[in-house]
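Project standup — Tuesday

K.O.: blocked on the structure for the chain from last sprint. Re-posting the sequence here as requested.
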Amino acid sequence: MKNSLLIICLLFSNWIYGNPNSEIKSSEGSYKLVVEGFDWGPAVNQVIITLENEVSDANPAEFKVFAKRESSQGDIPESQKSGERDVVFAFVSDENGNRVASGKHITLVLEVSPTQPIGSPIQYMRVGNRGGNFWIDYSLTIINSKTNQVWNQAAGKIMPLVDEYDLKGKFQYGNLTMSYASFSPETKGKKAPLIIWLHGGGEGGMDPTIALLGNRAANYASPEIQTLFGDAGAYVLVPQSPTFWMQAAEGMTRGQTNDIYNEALFALIQDYVKSNPGIDPKRIYVGGCSNGGYMSLKLILEHPDYFAAGYISALAYDAQYVTEQDIQKIKQVPMWFVHSKDDGVTKPESTVVPLYDRLKKAGAKNVHFTFYDHVTDITGFYGGDNYHYNGHWSWIYVHANQARTGLDGSPVLVGGRPVTIMEWMAAQAKK
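H.V.: unblocked you, prediction finished:
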């Protein structure tokens, strides 16, 4: 913390030195953070500052933004504790960041990228006996170089899409308590499907915002995804493991032993469906990444008649522990797997490749496998195909609804029409 403060002080000194007539007027201005999920994880991509007087324009060149990242829960690398944020745009807004012609707020748009951890309010750390993503103390100091006004008082945060979810879900099963986030569409009196997303190993705990932001899962509530499921949209359920889905009675399982959560999780799902009569029980879809991919397959293995489809990325279930009897039970369940060849964490040759081969040989008709060479920047902002993320992050293509090909590279078809993974899923229903 001392070093962080020293860096901030030096930055202030340098800025003031370049402005010898400067005098800091106030340190009581307030700001509100805007936190969004990106392909690589969450970032503060905007900050909304409150003004004393109404304005009609905003100049990004007038503002300096300094960030400080602290945590009492675990260590943050020294190079990631503090630094300056680049302001790329500014506009007059209301208190929620909506553009207006004139008003008493300015929204500053900040540069974000997968190589700038200073932008993230969440940090992967080891806390206790496990590693995971945790909220940290993220604070800003904003200076206007023209007026010398300072804003350094936090006044809350906005989380687009995440704020559309009910974050208060709790479910008790025996000695286990699980939290969950949920989204309810405007069904317009129609039955709607249910999308279940199971997070990866780093998003466990009792704060479902982590499960929503860690892998951009909040995107299932976006209009772009919701419209694919018809006029009624789709319910979204995001349960959170208190630890990690693959936890066994002793250590971690890859399928060789039973985990401690699948029974409680299925009970949670059943309870949620019962509590929401607008859900179509013939269209319940389960998916997840890594740890959540393991649990998705586990639920399908245990309850093959319950789910209309599975969508699984970076599968962590070791195929050697799926029996031939298991294959026969699940071969009729529509499934779409997404993985990357360079995944060094859940190695495809041990997980998805043999499982997919066995399902196809058993006669599975509606099982698909998108197999990427690398996980790349799908936005084009950071290098496009030339920028490679960690090969384990194949869920990026699922959340963005980008997966659209089978193992041979040909498009997946529904009714003779090429479809994306979410379009395919929307077409699946139990008979």
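K.O.: great, moving the ticket to review. The radius of gyration is 23 Å. Residues 1-24 have pLDDT under 50 and may be disordered.
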